[in-house]
Design brief:
The protein is α/β, with parallel strands linked by helices. It has helices at about 15-30, 40-45, 80-90, 110-120, 125-135, 155-165, 180, 185-195, 210-220, 235-240, 255-260, 295-305, 305-320, 325-340; strands at about 1-5, 30-35, 55, 75, 95-100, 120-125, 140-145, 170-175, 200-205, 225-230, 245, 265-270, 285-290. The protein folds into 2 domains: about 1-145 and about 325-340, Rossmann fold (3-Layer(aba) Sandwich), CATH 3.40.50; about 155-325, Rossmann fold (3-Layer(aba) Sandwich). Helix content is about 40%, strand content about 15%.
Length: about 350
Amino acid sequence: MNILHVNLAKGFRGGERQTLLLIEQLSTLGHQQALVCRPDSPLRQHLSKVDNLRFINGSHQLSAHMNRFKADIAHAHEARAVHWVYLHKLLRNTPYIITRRVDVPVKNKLFNRLNYRTASARVAISSKIAALLNQLDCGAVEQIPSAFAHLPKNDSVIEAFKKDYPNKFLIGHAGALVDKHKGQLVLIEAARILQERYPQFQFIFLGNGSDEALLKEASKDLSNVSWLGFKDNIADYLRGLDLFAFPSRNEGLGSTLLDVIDCGVPIVASDAGGIPDIIQHQKTGLLVPVNDSVALANALEQLYNDVELRQKLIHNANRHLKDFSPELMAKRYDALYKIIKHSR
């Protein structure tokens, strides 16, 4: 089958990693694929060695429609791509599917409704997003979750990271430094609450983003907070943590949590968006209310003091991880593509 993926994002965040994982897995199933993306998209480098994949330059919704790739189906992976595939359907009569990854309602505008109604399938990565798409009332919604990434590890880097913080209990966070989304200010306040009572705690922030200066200013008086910036080899740092804190204010699914689970680290997360699809309270992690730094601090304290609970959460979460494998994600999309092709 010829599959045309569309991702017009400028950077490389969760949605782009999931695009990458899907294309890699579909390649192993023998599909011919093309990716419409920006000329400077990081996806080009990450996918440069994938067999039977070509890249098509596209910087906006009106570009690249006259490409020579004869697609059986087009797949939109982010918001601008939704408009692209709709126009491509009008121009080339190519059926398309939309994957929705964010837990905010689609703006109830005529053009948006038309885009979603015309799609051959609408896919949500979490139950929260599926509920929001159902409210749009533009057709049936499939649910296919994101996948963990099988991130490689380097034992020497992990060991060096741990040695930088001797005798410390490391509580980490990884994500774009955008507080309105990831809620880093909530975690900073939790660090403030716990600083005197647990001087052995060290809070490690991984990532970069537009709020970096604001967040560093908010934590400048805290000796128990460290900012390590963006790391390509994020798994080496995740594996060095004792706990992971994820106080997002909104979250489509929180695929970062899947990689944390794969690294064997227990999790405290906010009860936001699609996170409860991954973190089941007291089973695969602990959930706390959104925007509640006191509850977050209490949950971190609870896990620190309960080694048996930490091990239980790690064990259960790892068993749950099989439902989020890249292989299973690709098989489910492959089945959906085939249904759409055979129904034409």
